[in-house]
Each structure stands twice: as structure tokens, then as C-alpha cells.
Amino acid sequence: MIFVELFRVFFMCWLGLTGMILLGGVIAEATQQGLGPKQILEIIPFLIPSTLPYTLPTTTLFATCVVYGRLSHDNEVLAIKAAGINVFQVVIPAIVLGAVASLGTMALYWDIIPSTHWKLRTHFVNNIEDLMYNMLRKDGRIQHPQLDYSVYAKQVEGRDLLDASFMHRDPKNGGFDWIARGRKATISVDQDKKIITIRMWDGTLRKENGESAVFEFFEWPVEMKLNAPEKNRPTDMTWPEMSQFRAKFEDDIDQNRQEIAAHEAAIIRGNSPPEFVEHIRHKRAYIRGVQGLIANIDTEYQMRPALALGCLCFVLVGCPVGIWFSRSDYLSSFITCFLPIIVVYYPLLLCGVNMAKSGKYMAALAIWPANTLMSILAVMLLRKLMRN
Q: How many CA atoms lie within 13 A of 274 on its CB side?
């Protein structure tokens, strides 16, 4: 009965918290960026897994405080003690829920969470056409320093750009060498050939030298320079991929160190070209950058199980606190347990993550103190509960 009640409150709380995160932050930001309902619905399945490492610990703690607070408030825990039953038997369902949530989070971290995170980052880059139309709907233009063209539209109706302008930039002087303006235009993208084609109807073409011409229809193929991002963030890597990338980075460091040693030996012998000194400086800077990537991977190695284990740690703290405070309402349970965790656990964890990524401390020593503190607190509270 306790486990069923725990699961019911846990599921309802998870739905509510996930909905608030999506509605309050992600969807609002996506709307401001010019994404339509179709694009927002497309990215929601990629967003939900990334929120689980933070929503699952919160909901397990909340469910534990609510259910055990009700049991204590209704004197059911007192009745169980009076019947001679060890109160630890009452805590077992919560431990099971916390263990299942921790194992589930770790299983999702193996592949699903990083894979969906990577798909979210590359989703709109792989749909350049939709991305460009969204930019035109939001800002009325497509303009970027790396692009040798700019597109403007007064209005966007479906796939039609009304009162559109296409400006081509001269790579030599940075100015526009010709400008086309038409009644209507469309954009199509060929992902395989990396070509963007702008088609325009009923317009005029004006060149930099003052020449102009009128056309009924014209099209311009331009090179698509917006490429998919590289998978170099540990948050985008599955567990096996992190091992592969780490081994590759270590091989790069060894190879560059061998080149530095060979260059330094040539400099000592006095038979090296003058660019060797600059080459060594670049190699050392590259090694520092790769060492930073390795530190990020090591941090991710430790952070994933630490966040997953947080579900179990929160449950072990929430059970005795919920019983002692004997609160049957949701708000009191939430304030009683979750606010101290927000003030202590997550700041300590985030500080450890930052120190590990910067290379100041070993990842294991920097990240696990937050869970260690919660575990010590849980043992102390449970021992006191057993004595009472």
C-alpha cells in the first residue's frame, strides 16, 4: 500500500514538474526564437530525457515526504510501532523507489540522455530550410558575418517570402556587389549537395556599378555554410563514446608531446628552422585544450552516477524527516525537505563540477562530497528514527 501510494504521488509530481519546466522555460524560449508549434512539438521528445536527472530526484523526495508525512500525521506509524513492527519495514518501499529511480537514471545516462541531447543540438541544423524560415518570420532577415549573402522579407506566408530582397556580398571589399528585389521568393535546401537555392519572381537586379535589369523569374544557388556541430561535448556522448573519445585525446597528447620533444632536440642541436619555436608553442596550447576536454569527460564520468544516486540519497533523508515533521499537506513537505537540499546539495555539486572541469581537483574528489554529505545525514537520521 505504501509503495503504490509512493508511486502515485511520484508519477503525478513528475508530470507536473516536467510540464512546468517545459512550459515555463523551454517552450517560452523557443517561441521567442521564432519556432512554430510544429518545431516545438518536434523538440519536446528530445528535451524530456535531459530533464530526468533533475526531475527524478526532486519527485522521489517530494513523494517520500508527502506519503510518510501523511502516515505520521494519521498516527499510522505510531500504530505500527505499537504493534511491535520495526519501523524500518515502513521505510523499505521508499528505498525500493529510490533505488529504482537511481538505476533508471543511470541506465538512461548510458545512451538515451546523451543521444537525445545530441539530436536536439543537431535537429535544426539538419533542417536548414525550416531554420531559415523561422529566422525570417522572427527577424525578417537572414544575416551573419560568415555568410556571403543576406536575405530580407517584409512578410512570410507559408513558404512564400513577400517583398523579398537578396543581397550578395563581394568577398574582396565586404560590400554588396549586386542586390535583387522581387515580389515573391522561396528558399529550398539540398542537404546532400549542401546547396541553398533562392528563387525570385517579378523583380529587379541592381549591380554595384549601377547597372540594373528586370526579370520575371530568376534563381541563385549558394553554398550552405552552416554545418552540423561536432560531437566534442561529453554531454552529447554515450558512455562507450566517452571512452573512445578519451582514448583518442590521450593518443593526440602523446603524439604532440613526441613532436615537441623532437623539435626541442633539433633546437638544441642548432639545426632547426626558425618556425619550430612557434610550432612548439602551438602544440603546447593544443595539448592544454585537449587536456581540458579530457577533464570534461572525467567530470561527466563522475557526475552521471552522482546525479543518479541522488534519488536514493534524497529518499533516505526524506523518510525520517517526513515522519518527524508529520505534515500531511504538500507545501509543508516540500519546504521541509527540498529547500535545504537546494541550498546545500546542488550548490556543492555544481561547485565540484566547475572545479573538476577546470582541472583544479580530481573529478571524483570534487563531485562526490555532495552525495557523501547526504549519505552521512541519511545514516544519522535513520539511526535516530530506529532508536525512537
A: 0
Q: Does 8 reside within a domain?
A: yes
Same domain as 53, residue 115: yes
Contact in structure between 384 and 320 (CB atoms under 8 Å): yes
Same domain, residue pair 110 and 39: yes
Coil, strand, or helix at residue 85?
coil
Name the amino acid, one letter, at 360.
Answer: K
Query: One digit per residue, pLDDT tens: the chain, 388 residues?
Result: 888 888 898 898 888 888 888 776 666 656 555 566 666 777 778 888 888 888 898 889 888 888 888 888 788 878 887 888 888 888 899 999 999 999 999 999 999 999 888 887 776 655 677 777 777 877 788 876 667 778 888 888 888 888 888 888 776 766 777 888 888 998 888 777 778 888 899 888 888 777 888 888 888 887 766 555 667 788 888 999 999 999 999 999 999 999 888 888 888 887 778 788 888 888 888 898 888 889 999 999 999 999 999 899 888 888 888 887 766 555 666 676 677 777 888 889 989 999 998 888 888 889 999 999 989 988 898 888 887 6
Give one word for 178, left, alpha or beta, with left for phi > 0 and alpha for psi -120 to 50.
beta
Prediction pTM value: 0.72
Q: Are residues 168 and 213 in the same domain?
A: yes
Picking from 223, 242, 267, the residue at the C-terminal end of a domain is 223
Residue 39 lies in domain? 2-123+304-327+369-387
Report residue 383 CA to chain centroid gap.
38
Looking at the structure of the chain, the number of domains it has is: 2
